[in-house]
Amino acid sequence: MLNGERKMEKIKVFISDPQVLFREGIHFTLSGEDDFEVTGEATNNEDSYTFIESNPPNIAILSMKASKASGADITCRIKRNFPSVSVILIMDKETEDDLFAAMRCGASACVSKDTDPDLLMDTIRVVAQGGQPLLDIAFTPNMASRILAEFEKIIPLSEQLNNVMARLSSKEAEILSYIVEGNKIEQIVARLNSNEATVRRQLRLIINKMVANDQAKALLDAAQRSFPTFFSAAAGKNGAGDYVTRSEFNEFKENLMQRLKALITNS
Fold first, then answer.
1. How many CB atoms lie under 10 A from the CB of residue 209?
2. Cβ-proximal residues to 104 (8 Å cutoff; 6+ apart), any chain
3. Which of 1, 51, 74, 236 is most buried, judging by how many CB atoms fall within 10 Å of its CB?
């Protein structure tokens, strides 16, 4: 290459959807762009995760509804193990429940299958640049109300865990309350004497906290399911029935708390 010119690194995209024509349509559209490279395809989300494990793309386009594993479930696994991979979820029809599930699992965007190809490409480009189009959904009263409810539900659990879970700051709660009241972003900016970029940044942090809490709850559920295995292993080692020493249990608990704190801190 002349004069220090560097070859442009393409944005790697993986596509998964059970409908071949839809999947191939996205592939064909991306193939016509110089800055994108389709690294693989799959018909189901389980196979998609296996591929992503071995060859992480920049963006994974996954089907929200699937027979074995939903797009939300696989997105949670992706964001937990490969946080740099952005996820776009494809929906047959955008419902509030599905959009909220997509937001909680850490997806960057959602599009329906009848989305105009140009709009789909615009969405992919925004996500490739680090954008989160799904964030705009949080500026609706119903969605903001559901987000507030999620943080309220987590308070008792957080108190049991020495307040390790992420909680809303007073400013963040105020922003959500303004949205619930029906205020548009321009009105919220005026009421806070702030600017739109700051409000959007705070809302993005709110969503990141919710995602981290959801990941933490999944970790707690997994830990709870592992208790019998943990006790059995300890019993076999100690040769004393179901006996577990205090130090062994404290070590287990401390490891769990460290993993929870790491999830929240990195949100």
1. 22
2. 72, 150, 210, 211, 214
3. 74
Q: String of b and e for 110-144 (b: at least 16 CB within 10 Å)?
A: bbeeebeeeebbebbebbbeeebbbbebbbeeebb
pLDDT for the residue 93: 86
CB 227 within 8 A of CB 159: no
Q: What is the mean pLDDT of each run of 10 residues along the chain (267 residues)?
A: 61 93 90 91 91 95 84 92 94 91 95 88 93 93 96 84 84 97 96 95 94 83 61 49 53 60 57
CATH number for region 10-133: 3.40.50.2300
Return the SS3 of 162: coil
Placement of tokens 């997806």 in the chain: 107
User: Which tokens is 167 given?
Assistant: 């909680």
Query: In the chain, what's the furthest Cα-to-Cα distance?
Result: 73
Distance from C-alpha of 25 to C-alpha of 43, rounded to nearest angstrom: 14
Residue 231 is predicted with a pLDDT of 47
